[in-house]
Amino acid sequence: MQINKTVIALGFPVIALLLWVLLLSAKMMFLPEVVVRIRGYDPRDLLAGHYIAYTINWDDTDCKQFKDNVCPVKEFEIHANKARWGEQHRYYIPEEYAKELDYAFRNQWKEKSVFEVIYKYTPGLAPIAKELLINGKPWKETIVKKTGENNGSSKN
Amino acid sequence: MRLHKKLNLWEKNQLISSEQKQKILNFEKNYRSPILFSGFIWLGIFVIALGFISIVAANWMYIPGYAKIFADFMFLGAVACATYRAYKNKSEVWFEGGMLALYMLSAASIGLIGQVFQTNGSFASFGFFWSLITFPMLLVSKRKIIPALWLIVFISSFGFIENIWDIIEILFWWCIHVPLVQRIISAFLLIGALAYLFDWAYKKTNLPIFDIANIYANIALYINGFYCLSLAFDYHGYFWLYYPITVAFLIIMAVISEKLGNIKKVNFNIVLLYICFIVLYFDLVGSLISTSLGLIVSGGVIIGGVYLVKYTIRKLKIFRGAQNNANK
């Protein structure tokens, strides 16, 4: 009996996490994609690294992607974090590019950049952010390229 | 040291022989678990696990998400297997250390998965999920570290629930809109009842989680008591309301501790009573003369009260004994 309890105690966290990963993977593979426009700022979360905290700009999002051409504002709000100034979503970013991405995000109006997020979404399930886009391209292409150019010019 | 004193007392009263006393002392000396050694091992494991959480937080871009998750599960599995092996080999230090590592690494894994899949969640959802998947460990661990951490995470997760304070206001409306003194007394009674419940549950099940919950409830009780005492000296108009409540609380805790056989706690409460009276002396209620008279009378009341209680209990025991004999 004690051995069974020990096996359960040690195995349960691993199995529970595995099931969670399988569920999230299934959502990532099978749910349809939608693209939403975002705006926001960058705080810090010790547990999962840096993240961009943003709100969804529904005014500039193409609602034709959704059922009945209606943007699911309420449904996205339910799954957002409630912050002082409104609903907040997060996109985790690597520590080494946090500074550049933070700058680009804060100055998107000045630099006329368009920030969007691709979500895996279907009505009734929590949406999952798949990719952060800058001017239609994955953020890594823009930021990593910019960082490479800056490093090159500083060496010269 | 206390065991030595007890054994000397038993030997003096011829309950055990000097040979038996020596046998017991020798046994205890050899059986003593290496608390310091195991404590440092577990501390080292805890610190290493924190380091892993920081590695997750760094969010290395060059390693693909699925590779990170695969490595994480391999590591989790390895820790779980090693812990089970320690359990089979009856190595308590490494078994408990392994469970602590698994507990902390579960949190790191939740963070990693959240980061890779970009899940959005508050500390509440993280805390409750972490508590849920590690709950079975509470039924197996014989040490207090994991239950102590688990309870802190579980309770603090409630604080991060959206609109929690509105919910509390609804649930405890009867408490919020009553005078402060009633709230303080209600808190004493409610937390005291919880502490008693946890103590009873610990004696029934021997699970450390209940012992830890009892400790936390007692801490909350004494914080409430300290708050009550501070009110007595903050608002001099209410001194004669809050000060007796604090003294009564400490006396009741001393009596309950004595009933439960917890001598250390009895002494602790008596010491706090000493401090209460010293604080009273230094604060000075009215003139020095009235304070000194008050203290002398209080001391007399305490001594007289103790004798009165002892006399009453003795009389009640005699009365109950006579009743039982009559019923037989």
Task: Indicate the topology.
The complex is a heterodimer of chains A (156) and B (328).
Chain A: H1 2-30, E1 33-41, E2 44-45, E3 49-56, H2 73-78, E4 81-83, E5 86-93, H3 98-106, E6 115-120, E7 128-134, E8 137-138, H4 139-155
Antiparallel strand pairs in A: 1-3, 1-6, 2-3, 3-5, 4-5, 6-7, 7-8
Chain B: H1 2-12, H2 18-31, H3 35-58, H4 65-88, H5 92-116, H6 123-138, H7 145-158, H8 164-171, H9 173-176, H10 180-205, H11 208-234, H12 239-259, H13 263-283, H14 288-327
Instruction: Give average pLDDT of chain B, whole number.
Output: 83
Q: Please outline the major beta sheet of chain A.
A: 8 strands, antiparallel
Q: Roughly how much helix do the residues of chain B carry, as a percent range?
A: over 70%
Elements of chain B, N to C (H/E):
HHHHHHHHHHHHHH
- Principal-axes shape call of chain B: globular
- Strand pairing plus helix content of chain B: what structural class? mainly alpha
Please give the alpha-carbon distance between the first and last residues of chain A.
70 Å
- Mean pLDDT over the residues of chain A: 81
> What is the radius of gyration of chain A?
19 Å
- Tell me the number of helical segments of chain B per DSSP (H or I, 4 or more residues long): 14
Radius of gyration of chain B: 27 Å
Largest sheet of chain B: none
Question: Order of SSEs of chain A, N→C?
Answer: HEEEHEEHEEEH
Number of strands of chain A: 8
